[in-house]
Amino acid sequence: MKKKVLCLLMAAACAASLSACGGGASETTAAAAPDATTAEGNTAAKAEDTTAAEEEKADAAEGKQLIMATNAEFPPYEYHDSSMTGPDGSDIVGIDAEIAGAIAENLGMELVIEDIAFDSIIPELQSGKADIGAAGMTVTEDRLVNVDFSDTYATAVQVIIVTEGSEIAGPDDLAEKIIGVQQGTTGDIYASDDFGDENVDRYPKGVDAVQALLQGKVDAVIIDNEPAKVFVSENEGLKLLDAAYAEEEYAIAVKKGNTELLDQINGALAELKESGALDEIVAKYISAE
Ligand code: ARG
Q1: Which of 42, 83, 104, 155 has the most beta carbons within 10 angstroms of its beta carbon?
Q2: What atom in ligand 1 is closest to the CA of residue 71?
């Protein structure tokens, strides 16, 4: 309902001024209101509708929990920080935690974050123990067989971390080397496919793979770019290779066939993108270079 109203308003603004559609600047839209009476009428109608829709939503969801399964070992998307309080009151913070908090708020639900092994997230959704998986989770064909994904909210790159003196300069040099990964991640899947199972060492957390690299147990780590940057900045003697390994997109996972929740998430995500709130969350955790 809320979404529909927003679309209608946008359509009206666009019809009034074509340039408003392209630019999307808020002043343009405001100035383009065709006549004050209509604009006011619309606003009043919108307010009424919005309140009614929100009450309806809140009533239906009242007291309901939105259980988010994640693996909080993946800064800046989800990690433990005892100096901060996450959206569910725990010390789990990060981009995904805040996005899920905003979605729960939008749906009038209470967010509960469960920190589990990354490769347990999909089974938890399938068994109904968790409602959403928000874990910097990449959309892949294989995962789409077992869960549904929301619209994407971030792009990511799989990158290679090596020690400073390493002779490895790009993906081609990884043949016959031992690659450390977080178990069950796309880094694991790609590395195993490309270089063979026997050349991949799997760890429960990404940071464990990074420790193994520092200890000389593996020759390189393949992991998502944002946590990679954090791990390299926190540990001396490591560097990130320029050559990207693979590009991918993050989305929120739900139980296969749960279209009602999926639609609600997509509606909330669209609002967060539209209002700039999503960008604000990202900017809080990732400083622009
Ligand atoms: N993007 C990668 C994947 O989907 C890694 C995600 C790991 N996330 C985490 N919270 N540990 O496989």
Answers
A1: 104
A2: 10
> Which tens digit of pLDDT belongs to each residue from 46-76?
455 555 555 555 555 556 999 999 999 999 9
CB atoms under 10 Å from CB of 165, counted, come to 7
By most ligand atoms within 8 Å of CB, the mutation choice from 224, 230, 249 for ligand 1 is 224
At residue 23, the pLDDT reads 33
In the chain the domains, ranked by start, together with CATH numbers, are: 63-153+251-285 (3.40.190.10), 156-248 (3.40.190.10)
Residues with CB under 6 A from ligand 1: 70-71, 73-74, 78, 118, 135-138, 156, 182, 185-186, 224
Where does 156-258 have alpha helices with state H? Answer: 186-195, 206-214, 225-234
Best of 138, 181, 230 for a ligand 1 pocket test (most atoms within 8 Å of beta carbon): 138
Q: Residue holding tokens 């997109």?
A: 249
